[in-house]
Design goal:
- By secondary structure, this protein is mainly alpha-helical.
- Helix content is 81%, strand content 0%.
- Helix 6 (124-148) crosses helix 9 and helix 7 (157-182) runs antiparallel to helix 9 (193-210).
């Protein structure tokens, strides 16, 4: 991570890296807020019919993707914040619990395809090794912090260890955020793109088993 940041600093300047990162974070938050509020207004008007809400949520995701592309924001961060905000602001539970099943699987496939379409897997052996090192480093960092705070949180060490393992799949989401930087700093696509995508894919596949 330090090597990537250092390379960006040399080519684009630290201020450009910082401003672009802030734009991604705060811009995605603002867009997610507007979409979440608008979605709840629509849900209040049209009720809790599962069939309508299924189609509405698909349209909501596609609309978000289009707006993110226009504004050059972070797609995974915007979608995550949308889900969090809709759940937080939906006090009367207008959004019903839907079973996406096959449709959800299709969206996962589309997500990985969209990130991987422009990647080059030349030297794939090195990419796999780097991906495994990324996963190991993230696990060590999460385990150390979780175990260190276990006693202060009145959390048994055994459960803290299991929580560190359970948190690993969620950390794969953060790796997708690097893709947003690679759209601006193209050297990242060749240097870190393939290992990051592989690490995120491994964490996603291993997620249900680890949990």
């Amino acid at each position: 991570a330090l090597a990537v940041i250092s390379a960006l600093g040399r080519t684009a300047g630290w201020w450009a890296v910082a401003l672009h990162s802030m734009y991604l974070i705060f811009g995605s938050g603002v867009l997610a807020s507007f979409i979440a509020i608008g979605a709840l207004v629509v849900l209040r008007l049209f009720g809790r019919a599962a069939g309508f809400q299924f189609v509405f949520l698909i349209g909501l995701v596609l609309t978000t993707v289009a707006l993110v592309q226009v504004l050059k924001l972070s797609l995974p961060l915007t979608l995550l914040l949308e889900g969090v905000l809709i759940r937080m602001l939906d006090r009367q539970r207008h959004l019903v619990a839907l079973r996406l099943e096959e449709a959800g699987t299709i969206f996962i496939v589309i997500l990985f395809a969209s990130f991987g379409a422009n990647l080059s897997f030349a030297g794939s052996g090195t990419a796999w090794l780097t991906a495994l090192l990324i996963i190991a480093a993230r696990f060590v960092a999460k385990a150390i912090s979780t175990l260190a705070l276990a006693r202060a949180s009145a959390f048994p060490m055994e459960k803290a260890g299991l929580s560190a393992v359970g948190l690993m799949p969620a950390s794969g989401f953060m790796l997708f955020l690097l893709e947003d930087l690679s759209d601006v700093y193209l050297q990242l696509r060749g240097e870190a793109g393939a290992p990051v995508l592989l690490a995120a894919a491994l964490l996603t596949v291993a997620g249900p088993l680890l949990t």
